[in-house]
Amino acid sequence: MRRKMYIKHLQHVAEKLKDRHDELNSKMAAPPPDGYTRQRETARRFFEMRGECIVNQARWLEVVTPTFTMTLPTTPYDNCPNAALAGPHVRILSGPSGLIDDCLGLRNMLADLADKRASPHGVADTPPRLTFEVDPGSIVHVGDTYVCHWTGKIAFVEDNSTLVSISHTGMAKCCFAPDHRIASLTWRFDVLAFVQGITELAAEPMATPALQQH
What we know:
The chain is of the alpha+beta class and 214 residues long. It has helices at residues 2-29, 35-51, 57-60, 95-116, 191-201; strands spanning 64-73, 84-87, 90-94, 129-134, 140-142, 145-158, 162-176, 182-189, 208-209. The termini are far apart. The protein has five helices and nine strands, in the order αααβββαβββββαβ. Helices cover 38% and strands 31% of the residues.
C-alpha cells in the first residue's frame, strides 16, 4: 500500500516537472523582442505610416512619444499650424498632432497630383501611392540612435498600363525613448530636387511602361 502511494506521488511530481518544463520551453520559443529589435520595428512602422499618410493619433502614439519632435526642411505641401520655424528653411513638427498636420499636407499634395494627371474622363485609374524604403546597408544603429538612408517614391498607374512615378532620397536620424518609441527624428532631403520631381510629375510626359500586374 505504501509503495503504491509512493509511486503515485512520484508520478504526480513527474507530471508537475513536465508541465513546468513545457511552460519554460514555450517561453523560450518566443522570447520578447529586445530593445534593438523593437527600435528597428518602430522605425519601419514610422516609414510605413508616413507613406500611408496616417491621421489617427492613437496609431501614431504607438510609435512616437507625446512630446515627439520632427525636424525637417520646409516643403511646398506645408500644412502645419503647429510647426515652428527653426531657421530660414527648417521647421519642427511637435507631437502626434504635428505629424497628422504634415500627413494631411502630403495627402492634399498627392490628390492635387492625381487631378493634374487625370485621364481624359477626369478620373485617375489608381490614386497615387507614397512609399519609403530604407537601404538596409545604410543603417547605423548605436544605443538609442538609428540613422539610415531612405528612398521615397510617388507612383500610380494610368490607363491600366502606364506606371508614372518619381523618386527622391534622404536621410533620417531617430532617437528613441526608454520605451523604444521615437522621441525625436531629423528628416533630411533635397527639397529643390523633390519640387522639380513633383512639378514634372504634374505634367503630361514621364509615363513609362508599367510592370506586369500579378
